[in-house]
Amino acid sequence: MKLPEYFKKIxxxxxxxxxxxxxxxxxxxxxxxxxxxGIEKTLVIDVADIGMTFKKILDLAGMWNRDFxxxxxxxxxxKIKWGNVLGHYDIYTxxxxxxxxxxxxxxxxxxxxxxVVALGTERVPIIHSDLKRVALDxxxxxxxxxxxxxxxxxxxxxxxxxxGEFIGIMRDVATRVILADEGRIKIIKSPLIEDMxxxxx
Length: 201
Known about the structure:
By secondary structure, the chain is of the alpha/beta class. The chain has helices at residues 3-7, 26-37, 50-60, 95-109, 123-127, 131-145, 164-173; strands at 15-20, 42-47, 72-76, 84-89, 114-119, 151-158, 176-181, 184-189, 198-199.
């Protein structure tokens, strides 16, 4: 099975975790998400300019579609604007504060069925001193969105950067976990056992 085919199996109400390493093809996975779900239904939360890094890598590879530049973006930290920026939040603010503010803003500016892609999620706990509390805050936010018929949330986490406990907490609340490393993409958690396999990019 190819990755875009697997993405089409994801249903509203799900939370998907994409774990990747610096040696993986994470930007290509991001591209496939934009192509599969469409930019008109996709919102990107770009933490600390990770989204911009993905965009530049795809640009250099000649894989960045011009239409992708219209995707809606919320910036959490970082300085480089790209896409259609709906809001910019200070990453050093208490996570419970910016999570609430972002949620309200998304509901008002981007209603209806949507796919939210969070890039650089692992940066948030690292920046704040109480790592465990922040990790639990993010996991609680993820769990409250499970079952929402208007929403699919996809979290990207760099395993080279994230604390092990944070990865474990996010795996718990995810309905699907995709592991990408050194050219391989493997499904390690899925609602259907038969879907747990190594995928083709």
